[in-house]
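Hi V.,

Quick status before I head out on leave. The structure for the redesign project is tokenized and pasted below; the design run finished overnight.
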């Protein structure tokens, strides 16, 4: 699904450089502006500096994990209503600790890696059309 009419800005935070590269390419090909961060600390700095329309966060990242980053972002007025998708290649959603699952369940989406391109873009596009 291609959304060339959109110019929404997305931040993808993940410690897997290959995932960041592929995801950024997919998003930009689909008409979105995509920034990347290799860890939660870098993502937090970008969140403070820019306004994003969607956050895509890896559950497990160095420095600040995706769950903590989600909690920090949602406390701010700027990001309280911004949709968030969690991604993970290490943790099946059902296998998360109860505390983690409670936070992940508050997000707007959860995608396990590897994912199908169509599923990913449909999820992103659906959230950004709202």
């Amino acid at each position: 699904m291609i959304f060339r009419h959109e110019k929404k800005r997305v931040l993808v935070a993940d410690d897997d450089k290959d995932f960041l590269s592929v995801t950024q390419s997919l998003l930009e090909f689909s008409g979105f502006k995509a920034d990347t961060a290799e860890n939660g600390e870098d993502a937090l700095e970008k969140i403070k500096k820019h306004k994003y329309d969607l956050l895509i966060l890896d559950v497990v990242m160095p420095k600040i994990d995706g769950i903590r980053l989600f909690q920090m972002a949602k406390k701010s007025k700027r990001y309280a209503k911004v949709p968030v998708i969690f991604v993970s290649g290490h943790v099946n959603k059902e296998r998360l600790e109860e505390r983690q699952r409670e936070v992940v369940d508050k997000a707007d989406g959860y995608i396990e890696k590897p994912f199908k391109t169509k599923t990913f873009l449909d999820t992103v596009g659906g959230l950004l059309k709202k």
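Above is the designed sequence. The two ends are 16 Å apart (CA to CA).

G. will cover questions while I'm gone.

Best,
W.
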